[in-house]
Amino acid sequence: MDGNLSQGSEERRKFLGIQFVNCGAYGRLYKNREGTAYVGHCPKCGAALKIRIDPSEGTSARFFRYYCP
To answer: pTM for the complete prediction?
Structure first.
């Protein structure tokens, strides 16, 4: 493994951890290219999820629960 990667030469993608409660699954939402929202879907049922980014109103939490429809 190349030690240079741990020195920040490759930026990690920002994500939110999501527990999809109804489906008993875990997934991640990744920041979109515009940097305006985290987007993804449930790995079991495919339910789409979008959480917008708003620096003036928001939270610093990184993990959430979501109840699929």
So the answer is: 0.77
